[in-house]
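Hey, can you fold this one?
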Amino acid sequence: MIEIRAIVTDIEGTTSSIDFVHDVLFPFARKRLPAFVETRGDHPDVQHWLHEAAREAGVIEAGRQEVVELLLQWMAQDRKSTALKALQGMIWKEGYESGAYRAHVYPEVAARLRAWRADGLRLYVYSSGSVPAQQLFFQYSEAGDLTPLFAGYFDTETGPKREASSYRRIAEAVGEEPRHLLFLSDIVEELDAARAAGFHTGWLVREPQPLPAAANHRVYRDFDAIDLAH
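Sure. Predicted structure:
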């Protein structure tokens, strides 16, 4: 019998609908990015991430408009850029705080997270979105402020989600051996990387997606189906 001491969860397709991210958050950031850079571009945090985006693109000197066009292109490609995710998070913060939207979570998620926490499990998030964006997501969720349930957050500054080394860093950061950690995601390649690092894994395949004919990971339709005893 395994002993799970902490759970690390993805967001998109796992705790929350991919549609919310793609149909609400992404368009909101895309529409507001040019004005945001124009009005906030001199703020040190914004400047830092604009420079990081240019550096990532290999551009030595780039005008503000050139960087905006680059970021818009990356948004269209859903590029997993740490700089892009950080800037998106800053824009999304304004939307959350203004009440423009609330983050979607699947109906059973909040109650299951609370139950796990009540059982003494520590909960963490590992998502390609920046840590501040993750915190905003769960602070302004449709189920209320869920941030008190989480002990920590990890993003791509920890490392790519499809590399085992990233999960080893997470295990070290939370102070647990990988064999006591469970990673939940809807992406098989992420689960493969977590398993290679020694994690237990759970593959969320939510309705209306068909169940896989064969799977190398335990498959769950929702959080209520997750059995921590196996």
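The mean pLDDT is 95. Let me know if you want another pass with a different chain boundary.
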